[in-house]
Write a structure and sequence with these properties.
HMG_box_dom; HMG box domain-containing protein; 247 residues; DNA-binding; 78% helix; nucleus; coiled coil; mainly alpha; 0% strand
């Protein structure tokens, strides 16, 4: 009976050791010293397990008891070490998540950066970039380009910008808030901006909260905008990564 109980305990501890080994592998920053210490624990467990299995039913009960006590002590020690290891892994994972969030934030800022309209000089430099003339010389030469030529380069720059926008589409516009929606519907004709602002402000203040609520974007509009924004971000990030990979 004692041998059976001891063998069960030993089997359980070996399972624990296997779990510990698996957990250790997942900890990428686990030190070599800690790995060697755990390897020593596994060997101790295996040694005492072999000792228990080799004792007969009528064998030395004292030796069995001593072996079981040794395994129990190792068990408690290893559980404590496993708890410490789990904490270290959790801390490492939290740090990794934080780093990943920061990296994604930087990626998002670059990928969703608005496309700026290209000036004429940029089109001029782009067209002559392969001529072998240094960039500083091209910039100086620009001052000698005629007005007609500058106009041609501006048209070229506008064309490049339009082509860019077809691929790098602008961010979807969010639905107007309640006040902006009210302005769109009630903007008076034939008056100055100052007078129009004054009239609209007075009309808005005269509305009840319930009436103002009616001008807020609907749930469907907000859901549609959220879906469009999400799809736009995913597309822009992929375009940015593809463009970066080609460089």
């Amino acid at each position: 009976m004692l041998q059976s109980a001891a063998n069960i305990r030993a089997a359980a501890l070996l399972t624990l050791a296997i779990q510990s080994r698996t957990l250790s592998v997942s900890a990428v920053m686990l030190s070599a010293r800690q790995a060697r210490r755990q390897e020593s624990v596994y060997k101790e467990i295996e040694k005492h397990t072999s000792l228990i299995a080799g004792l007969s039913e009528a064998g030395a009960a004292k030796q069995k008891k001593k072996a079981v006590a040794a395994i129990t002590a190792l068990h408690a020690k290893e559980l404590k070490n496993l708890d410490l290891l789990k904490k270290k892994i959790k801390e490492q994972q939290k740090a990794l998540v934080a780093r990943n969030k920061e990296e994604y934030k930087k990626l998002l800022a670059k990928a969703t950066k608005p496309c700026r309209r290209m000036p004429a000089i940029a089109a001029y430099i782009k067209e002559n970039a392969g001529s072998g003339v240094p960039l500083t010389d091209l910039s100086r030469q620009w001052s000698h380009v005629t007005a007609d030529e500058k106009e041609r380069y501006q048209q070229l720059a506008d064309k490049i910008y339009e082509e860019t926008l077809r691929i790098w589409t602008p961010e979807p516009k969010s639905p107007p808030n309640a006040y902006a929606s009210f302005i769109q519907k009630h903007y008076p004709d034939g008056v100055s901006f100052a007078e129009a602002s004054k009239q609209i402000s007075a009309q808005w203040k005269a509305l009840s909260d319930a009436e103002k609520e009616k001008h807020k974007p609907s749930a469907q509009e907000l859901e549609k905008y959220a879906a469009e924004k999400k799809a736009w971000i995913e597309k822009r990030v992929q375009l940015y990564l593809d463009a970066k990979a080609k460089k």
